[in-house]
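Objective 1b. Sequence-to-structure analysis of Quinol monooxygenase YgiN.
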Amino acid sequence: MSKQALFIRHQAKPGCRDDVRRVWETFVKPRAAANPGHEAYYFCYDEGDPDTICVFQLYSSKEAMDAFLAGEWYPDYLKAVGEVVAAPPQISPAGLVWQKG
């Protein structure tokens, strides 16, 4: 099995970036922290756009990614975050070719 990466960009409604973060902290952060399938997770504020969040996730496999996103909590997260984002996220899955560390 090869590792699976996800690059995600969230566009918050104007002035709602911290609200997106609070939703993420409630639903995603504790589950990602406890998930052995997550090898890395970076939640970042875009310094060039006050309403954009950039996320990088590295999973141990595509199956680990699919299992995480299939959690029974995920629809509740999507509903909550949908209230504070301007559009659906831009999601780019990527197969890992090389990594340092």
